[in-house]
Amino acid sequence: MSKVYRSIVEAIQQKRLKEPFTSHDFKEACPGWAEGTYNVFLWKHRQDNPGGYTEYFELGLPGRFKLIRPSPLRCSLR
Questions:
Q1: Is the pLDDT of residue 77 over 70?
Q2: Looking at the domain assignment, is residue 77 inside a domain?
Q3: Would residue 45 count as lying in a domain?
Q4: How far is CA 32 from CA 27, 36, 45, 57, in A?
Q5: Residue 68 has pLDDT above 70, yes or no
C-alpha cells in the first residue's frame, strides 16, 4: 500500500483533510512529499484511470476527490 495513500487516509481520519478535497488541500494537509506528487498521485489513482493503476479516489467536479469506500484501509475508516 502506498505511503502517500496512507498519509491521505490518516489526514482524513485526523480531520486535517475534508472530503471532497483538491490537490492544494492535499498539499496543505500532508506536507513533505515531492511537489509533483500533489497533482499526479490523485489523478493517477482516480477511478477509471487510463493507466490501470489502483483506484483510490472518485473524481468530482471541479477537480475534487473523495476516497473510494470501502478502501483497502476500510478497517481504519469508520
A1: no
A2: no
A3: yes
A4: 8, 11, 19, 21
A5: yes
